[in-house]
Design a protein that fits this description.
Length: 305
């Protein structure tokens, strides 16, 4: 086993017993939600996964180790630390070797999950091609990771802070299948529809598992996006989120926000501009993704590799 990995007792027991494990990212805790809702949500999501018959493994970088599964105290540290570093593929070796506190993005969590032998990962939204990427070159490393790293990522689509059409084009170019659950449409995080269809609608966990296992058995490395819309009743009004997104994007441009700061800036501004209402949507969709991800992990575990 990789010397950088440190498994929690719960995850060690799950591995020994061959039980299904679901990875969870930590940037959503450190940079995606305010305290204390971030820590409360992290715990709730872990419990939803347990109740559905799988074992949660929240991933973060601490004390020179890739921690696979965090204690309550570690979750609290991540949720309150002002200096947690957002870690994507580029940052991983730096934060590990310098023994800094790191919260993993979708890209970094996929890398760590693969190292740990975990096939399913649950998050809120993935990164993508930013609007104006033709001049900024701002394309999330999450997409390259999906191209190369064989982990299924359950999410609620991508936010309309991004160019959703270009994000789907990019995924197609790199051979990353985009599955939708319960509807043909690819969701847009706060809203159930983006105006684009996913590639394949597959509603059942068993059928999703069969598809994903077949892809990997064919030697087709790389991820699969399993997009699950926010539950009805928790979605935000489209006009409101469109208006607020435009404002947040304008402010990011005016303030010269670039690089890895762009996504956290936009997420925080949207939360402020919705008066915190976007947070309830965010929590509801992550919880629902946890259920879908746990069921998928259970089904994949039954389809031996
Ligand atoms: N999109 C969201 N919520 C998030 C993120 C993206 O709707 O919390 C986080 C995830 O950790 C994702 C990262 O992997 O932001 C992408 O950042 P960037 O765009 O800098 O690659
Ligand atoms: Mn970026």
């Amino acid at each position: 086993m990789h010397s950088f990995l440190l498994f929690s007792p719960e995850v060690v027991a799950a591995r020994n017993a061959g039980r299904p494990i679901v990875a969870l990212e930590s940037t959503i805790i450190s940079h995606g939600m305010p305290y204390p809702q971030n820590v409360e949500t992290a715990r709730k999501v872990e419990q939803i996964i347990r109740d559905a018959g799988a074992v949660p493994a929240t991933i973060a970088i601490m004390d020179g180790k890739i921690c696979i599964g965090l204690s309550d105290a570690q979750l609290e540290t991540l949720g309150t630390a002002p200096d947690a570093i957002k870690v994507s593929r580029r940052d991983l070796a730096y934060v590990l070797s310098q023994r800094l506190l790191g919260a993993t993005t979708v890209a970094a969590t996929m890398i760590c999950a693969q190292l740990a032998g975990i096939e399913v990962f649950v998050t809120g939204g993935i990164g993508g091609v930013h609007r104006g990427a033709e001049t900024s070159f701002d394309i999330s490393a999450d997409l390259q990771e999906l191209a190369h790293t064989s982990v299924a990522v359950v999410c609620a689509g991508v936010k309309s802070i991004l160019d959703i059409g270009l994000t789907l084009e990019y995924l197609e170019t790199h051979g990353v299948p985009v599955v939708s659950v319960g509807q043909p449409g690819f969701p847009a995080f706060f809203t159930r529809e983006s105006g684009f269809d996913a590639d394949f609608r597959i509603d059942g966990a068993e059928q999703q598992a069969s598809f994903i296992r077949t892809k990997w058995q064919l030697g087709l490395k790389g991820g699969v996006v399993v997009s699950n819309p926010v539950p009805q009743g928790f979605a935000m009004p489209k006009e409101e989120i469109d208006r607020i997104t435009e404002q947040a994007l304008r402010e990011a441009g005016e303030q010269g926000v670039t690089g890895k700061k762009v996504t956290p800036f936009l997420l925080a501004r949207i939360k402020e501009l919705t008066g915190g209402r976007s947070l309830a949507t965010n929590i509801a969709l992550v919880e629902h993704n946890a259920l879908v991800g746990a069921r998928l992990a259970v089904a994949l575990n039954a389809h031996a590799a």
